[in-house]
């Protein structure tokens, strides 16, 4: 995003607008944090602002300031569609292709509103009037901070904005341990703490709110953990029956794939989660070093993401999906063993 774009957006926001903010389907900490951070910022400009999520999100994110104002498209479709059709501006956050919003894709594509994309994933589609895309950024929340700063408004960031953005940066960097965490990321985090983000409280709210059933599900996942030593790979499976047995709630499997990646010598980790409602196997991939799970996911599992973190899906059965995954590993053995 160049200076001319920033100047144009600043002029655009100089008068009151009807604005809708949309993150991707199955929103995570970065999607919700960036949406609410931007929401709080824009409401300070007296705009009429609404966050609309495609579907529900994990309960450990529902304490973030402003979360009670969020509308869910899958259960409030008519209201949400009316807002999208009537909007002057639609911000799309933490995704760069409209199909990532699921059933919202059609109404978003048809909306005459000006679209502004803020995202850090690779290969963005060309649907927005203004695109702020930077794959080097740790998170969309870091980009929203930069966006506010570029507009000359960093001084008006308050505790609600700071808290929201801190959540997304923390979760998308794996509590600041991923390679995408830079010195600039830490500088921004310091500024957010100065503005009122309580780092200890935020961490406790996100990571220390486990239910008994969630820990049992984690135990089941770890029991299912398998290693393919010749490919320096670990994978986990969770069937629909296992999810139901442990009373699965959205977000309960967040971060589970990282247990596989924590094993000594493992470079690639995957988790395969059966979802019979959608008729797919949901896939999360993580890697170390320069091995690109983004490329693997795009090539084999209809997905994508970042070099070291990506998602995908399979329309095969859980068993057949795992068989496919194992069958393609030998073609990556050299790259995996070179890490």
Question: How does this structure look, described?
Answer:
By secondary structure, the protein is α/β, with parallel strands linked by helices. It has two domains: 3-207, inorganic pyrophosphatase (n-terminal core) (Alpha-Beta Complex), CATH 3.90.1640.10; 212-338, Diaminopimelate Epimerase, Chain A, domain 1, CATH 3.10.310. Helices cover 40% and strands 18% of the residues. It has 14 helices and twelve strands. It has a six-stranded parallel sheet, sandwiched between helices. A six-stranded mixed sheet has the order 7-8-9-10-12-11. The longest helix has 15 residues, at 29-43.
- The percentage helix is 25-40%
* CATH topology descriptor of the largest domain: inorganic pyrophosphatase (n-terminal core)
As an assembly, this protein is single chain
- Spatial strand sequence of the major β-sheet: 3-2-1-4-5-6
The CATH top-level class label of the largest domain: Alpha Beta
Question: What is the structural class?
Answer: alpha/beta
What is the 3D shape? globular
**Cα radius of gyration in angstroms:** 20 Å
Question: What do we call the CATH homologous superfamily of the largest domain?
Answer: inorganic pyrophosphatase (n-terminal core)
**Total domain count:** 2
Order of helices and strands: HEHEEHEHEEHHHHHEEHHEEHEEHH
| Reported CATH architecture of the largest domain | Alpha-Beta Complex
């Amino acid at each position: 995003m160049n200076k001319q774009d920033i100047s144009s957006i600043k002029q655009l926001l100089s008068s009151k607008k009807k604005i809708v903010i949309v993150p991707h389907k199955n929103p995570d900490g970065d999607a919700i944090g960036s949406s609410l951070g931007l929401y709080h910022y824009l409401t300070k400009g007296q705009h009429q602002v609404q966050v609309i999520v495609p579907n529900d999100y994990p309960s450990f994110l529902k304490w973030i300031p402003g979360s009670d104002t969020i509308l869910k498209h899958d259960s409030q479709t008519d209201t949400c569609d009316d807002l999208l059709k009537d909007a002057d501006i639609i911000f799309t956050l933490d995704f760069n292709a409209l199909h990532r919003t699921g059933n919202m894709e059609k109404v978003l594509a048809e909306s005459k509103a000006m679209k502004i994309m803020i995202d850090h994933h690779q290969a963005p589609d060309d649907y927005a009037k203004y695109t702020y895309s930077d794959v080097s950024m740790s998170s969309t929340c870091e980009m929203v901070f930069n966006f506010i700063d570029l507009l000359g408004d960093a001084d008006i960031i308050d505790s609600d904005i700071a808290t929201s953005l801190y959540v997304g940066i923390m979760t998308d960097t794996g509590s600041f341990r991923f390679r995408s965490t830079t010195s600039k990321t830490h500088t921004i985090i310091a500024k957010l703490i100065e503005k009122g983000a309580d780092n200890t409280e935020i961490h406790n709210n996100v990571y220390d709110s486990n239910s008994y059933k969630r820990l049992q599900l984690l135990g089941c996942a770890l029991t299912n953990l398998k290693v393919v030593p010749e490919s320096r790979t670990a994978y986990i499976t969770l069937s629909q029956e296992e999810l139901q047995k442990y009373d699965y709630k959205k977000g309960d499997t967040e971060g589970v794939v990282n247990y596989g990646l924590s094993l000594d010598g493992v470079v690639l980790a995957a988790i395969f989660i059966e979802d019979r409602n959608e008729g797919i196997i949901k896939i999360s991939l993580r890697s170390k070093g320069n091995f690109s799970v983004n490329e693997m996911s795009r090539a084999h599992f209809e997905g994508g993401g970042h070099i070291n973190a990506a998602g995908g899906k399979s329309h095969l059965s859980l068993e057949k999906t795992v068989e496919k995954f194992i069958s393609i590993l030998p073609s990556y053995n050299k790259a995996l063993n070179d890490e």
